[in-house]
Amino acid sequence: MDDRGCGQTTGDLRQATSEDFARDVLEGVRYLKNRPEIDPAKIGLAGHSEGGLIALIAAQDNPDIAFIVSLAGPGVPGIEIFLSQQEHALKKIIQDQTTIDLSQSLNRIIFSDLIANPQQKAEVIYSRRLKEWVSGQDSNTVKKMMPTFKSEQDLEPDSLTKAVGRMNLPWYRYFMASDPGKLIGQVRCPMLILNGEKDMQVYCDLNMDGLEKSCREACKTNVEFRRFPGLNHLFQHCETGEPDEYGSIDETFAPEALDLIAEWIGKTTGSSH
């Protein structure tokens, strides 16, 4: 499906959240149910990355969804995904783990404040939390953590607007507060959950472990998990798994992953493929 505002679709993508996208998906399901060549009992959802979360939202207590294939989907709260991505980025530029840990503790405080106050501007929250943090640190620590910091004026909301602007988007706030674990127990249909072990966006171990834990706690047994060695976030065979490598890889999607998906859907729905 196209995103809102792409192609001939309507709607404002900048104002939409994962919940809005789930409603769009369900409109598609309703359309398919009215097609004479479609078996309404065999309509499933395949979602990649955020699409895995969208599929869970759409499938909650919904008998119209026959199955879900989650491809590199979130398995932990959105705040944990953002923090894991932030740590990965920090490790590329900072060698000192103590400094990284300090930065991450500050990020967690700010992100938690963003979740707790969804209507408040991100630059106001950042300004407040950064001022509190700076006031409790020595000058060397502040310089190490904030090399561009020159004066208190740099911590005012107006100075932070450009840096944190995207955090004011409804999508960002919704995703950060989302928790797939709270949805699993409300999904009745079978699920196939896949991830590449070299995924450097939605980290395989963090998110797959999270989904497996949530399924155990919800006593959900109609789920299969598969981790693919050597595949990145887009299910391409890769060297590093980093996003800047995607465009240099000719392969679009690993055949072994496609074969498994086709086999599983056929088995789950009693259909040939």
Topology:
Elements: H1 18-33, E1 45-48, H2 50-59, E2 68-71, H3 78-93, H4 97-116, H5 122-135, H6 139-145, H7 157-164, H8 170-177, H9 181-184, E3 191-196, H10 204-217, E4 223-228, H11 255-269
Parallel strand pairs: 1-2, 2-3, 3-4
Explain what you see.
- This protein is α/β, with parallel strands linked by helices.
- 48% of the residues lie in helices and 7% in strands.
- It contains eleven helices and four strands.
- The chain has a four-stranded parallel β-sheet with strand order 1-2-3-4, with helices on both faces.
- Helix 10 links the parallel strand 3 and strand 4.
- Helix 1 crosses helix 2 and helix 5 packs across helix 7.
- The radius of gyration is 21 Å and the shape is globular.
- The two termini are 22 Å apart.
- The mean pLDDT is 94.
Kindly report the spatial arrangement of strands forming the biggest sheet. Answer: 1-2-3-4
Total of DSSP H or I helical runs spanning 4+ residues: 11
Largest sheet: 4 strands, parallel
- Low-pLDDT runs: none
Q: Helicity range of the residues? A: 40-55%
Q: What number is the mean pLDDT?
A: 94
| Termini Cα gap | 22 Å
The radius of gyration computed from the alpha-carbon positions, rounded to a whole number of angstroms, is 21 Å
What would you call the shape? globular
| Structural category | alpha/beta
> How many beta-strand runs?
4
Series of H and E elements? HEHEHHHHHHHEHEH
Q: Strand content of the residues, in percent? A: 5-15%
Essential attributes:
273 residues; alpha/beta; 4-stranded parallel sheet; 11 helices
Summary of the model, kept short:
The protein is an alpha/beta fold and 273 residues long. The protein has 11 helices and 4 strands. Helix 10 links the parallel strand 3 and strand 4.
